[in-house]
Amino acid sequence: MSVLKSWTGGAILLLALAGGLRAEVTVSQSNNPVAAVDTGLVTLLGQERAGLEAIPAGHLSAITTAPKKPAKGKIASLEPLSDAWLARQPAASGDEQFQCLANALYFEARGESVAGQAAVAEVILNRVDDDAYPGSVCGVVNQGNSRGCQFSFTCDGRADRVNDKSTYGRVAKVARAMLDGAPRSLTDGATHFHTPAVRPDWSRRFTRTAQIGAHIFYRASVRTASN
User: Fold this and answer.
1) What is the dihedral of CA 190, 192, 198, 202, to 10 degrees?
2) Roughly how many angstroms between the first and final C-alpha of the chain, as a whole number?
3) pLDDT per residue as tens digits for the range 127-169
4) Is the Cβ–Cβ distance between 217 and 208 less than 8 Å?
5) Is residue 167 within a helix (H) or strand (E), and if so which, with residue range?
6) How far apart are CA 174 and CA 115, in angstroms?
7) How far apart are CA 220 and CA 132, in angstroms?
8) Spatial CB neighbours of 211, under 8 Å, sequence gap ≥ 6
9) 172 CB contacts (<8 Å, ≥6 apart)?
10) How many Å apart are CA 68 and CA 83, to the nearest integer?
11) What is the pTM of this model?
């Protein structure tokens, strides 16, 4: 009996010590700053993964894909155009719409400053954006009515022949930049212009917005309920 008691007492003591060791290990882990950081990192990564999985695949691709380089031949400026800026640009090229705008600038404004050429381009592009006009550059440039053509060079009876390649290359750069998103900040939304040598009837019904070089610019007057 004494042997059995002695064995039982020893087993109890061993169990008590083992429990104490387990408790000590548990407490030690709970106070281990490295273990706490690991647990927090796992939680953070789990939250991040859940957040990424909630983003639509198309949107995730858009925000993680590097921007594409501009297509060859395209130029753009986020500031007003200038001679110095144009001189740094490569030769401009483009599709039919680009050709229509470049031709319009050459035949309507080739003797103007860069600002004067950009202003004429603004008028054409403002018309493209206006539901009252055709929705393309070529449609606007070649538009006619009962009184003739919107842009005189298209129906003045003269051959539209480019004789000055250097000047055409310059206006082509202006056309390219305007099509690529250069600011339209010169004419305050103008959709019409004329030279000071004439005063068309329509000019009385429109709001004058600017005079740049040999052209005076206008936009439609804003009507309110009281006028």
Assistant:
1) -110
2) 118
3) 999 999 999 999 999 987 766 688 878 776 676 788 999 999 9
4) yes
5) helix 165-179
6) 9
7) 11
8) 196, 217
9) 91, 92, 93, 98, 102, 105
10) 27
11) 0.64
CB burial class (10 A; 0-12, 13-18, 19+) of residue 70? exposed
Q: What is the pLDDT of residues 15-50, one digit of tens each?
A: 444 444 444 434 444 445 445 556 667 777 777 777
- The residue written with tokens 């500031």 in the block is 79
CB burial class (10 A; 0-12, 13-18, 19+) of residue 153? middle
Residue type, 125: L
Task: Give the DSSP letter of residue 175.
Answer: H
Query: What is the C-alpha to C-alpha distance for residues 70 and 94, in angstroms, rounded to an integer?
Result: 13
The predicted-structure confidence for 73-97, as pLDDT tens digits, reads as follows 555 566 678 999 999 999 999 999 9
Give which of 128, 105, 222, 97 is closest to 174, Cα–Cα.
105
